[in-house]
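Entry
Fold in token form

___
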Amino acid sequence: MRLIGITNDPQKAEAFVSYLDHLGKGAVVRPEADNFGVWVLDEAALSKAKADWARFETEPNHEDFRIAVQPVLEEWVPQSKIEEAPLVYLATKPSWQPTAAILAATAVSVTVLTWFGEDRESVFRRITFGPVAPAGLTILPFDVNEPWRAITPVFLHFSFIHLLFNLLMLRDLACQVERRVGRWCFFGMFLLFAAGSNFSEALMGPSLLFGGLSGVMYGFFGYVLVQTLDPARNTPPEGYFLRSMTTLILLAWFALGVVQNDLPVTNWGNAGGLLLGLALGGLVVLAGNLLAKPAKD
């Protein structure tokens, strides 16, 4: 993480962070004495970020900046309205990251090819948790000779609302994780949450015919939730955040699935993903806090 510029105008700093976020370059704003510093997270982007900052200071209304900056200027919350706390301004508008976008495109493609699970030939038969019985009506137990089936059910969705909800949560939760931990670590987390939620549903759920990214989303929700509860993780370079509406929707949907267990919801998969996310998030926070402690003489 490197400092690229300082200003006494927090709105200006926040706007430039939004511009960098629009380019896929993670950045944060943090207080620097009586001013605000713009810090870029990816040192490979340092030279371009410095050059853009210099141009932004002289031409903030240039068309190169306008699309990314205008929403921040319109939605700006004055500093006086922010609670007193370790002051960190982040570009909190969700934006797609490369790996998450590929996963989203895969989910859309699979859902269309199987026509929301109604076409039970070809693609459908290769991605369910277990092999499909010859009649196509039941799913057989997991086959260790086909290990991809531990992951692939997450790409199968059975309705448009089911798919849309999971894509929105993917953008809101998973993308901020990818931006902070990198694509390979993010992909590893995705595989962990996918396999964990699928096996939880297969072992505890009522049927082996299931699908969707919900368990993965609850995994990332649990991970981000733990980060936001630890003040040390809300300072650069992590700066995780949870929107109140996102939290309310996910918790309400989880509670509804528990109370109304006859709904077509993968309750056990969601629970498995959530527990994995909470556990992984807790381990990351614990390891970070231990490493941050000064060594004793």
